Structure formats: C-alpha cells, structure tokens
Amino acid sequence: MTRRQKFTGPTPAVRDLVLQRDSWRCVCCGLPLNGERGWGWSIHHRRGRDGRPDAHQPQNLISVCGGDNTSGCHGLIHGRRSESEPAGWWLSRVAGVNPLTVPVLVDHGSRFVYLTADGEYSDELPGEAA
Length: 130
Prior knowledge:
Blueprint: H1 12-21, E1 41-45, E2 61-65, H2 72-79, H3 81-84, E3 104-106, E4 111-115, E5 121-122
Antiparallel strand pairs: 1-2, 3-4, 4-5
C-alpha cells in the first residue's frame, strides 16, 4: 500500500503562473531554476502557510533556488530573516501584513516590484492610479 501525499501548496495553475512571472529564475539570485521542485528549487511562501485565503496566491509566492528551507536562496531567506524582510522575501505573520502591499526585490537586487493577484509584476502599489 502506498501513502498519499497531502496537498499543502498552491495549485498547479498558480505554481505555473508564478514560475512564468519569475521567468523560471530565482527571484533572489537570478539563476535559472534547475532540477525538480523540492530538490533544486521551490515556491517560497513570503508570509508562510497561515491559513489566510491568499496564502497560496501569486502575491504571496516567489520562485527560489534551493529545494528546502535549508538550501540555496530558500535557505538564506529562512536563515537570514533580518535581511530577507527588507527585500520583501519574508513577511512576518505577526504583523498581519498584506503581500499585495509589500514590494519584492527582484532581478538580482536591481529593482523592487509589487506582486499582483493575477500573477504579474507591477511598479505601482495595487489600487494606485497610473
């Protein structure tokens, strides 16, 4: 008898949207994502899996190298939260922060963007006029 794996992450459609938005590259270092998910790369929850409706939505997810919380940039985010929070890669659950309103450092540290609910980058805070 085989054990069934419990589904705890974003849907395949949301995962693909995030990967496409991030150009199949690590948001932190810019390197291409190689290998299998969970081994060579991950989809990182900026604000963790806290049961909120947006926990598994594009605005709360980024593509990172490293298959778990201890390797690659994924490991750096978890290991260096004081550096990851100003970059928008890590959001405190305690503060009740909305991922739509916190910009993320992308393109190997060259610019900040907002992550939208429809899986895009935006230079403007959602709801602001262009």
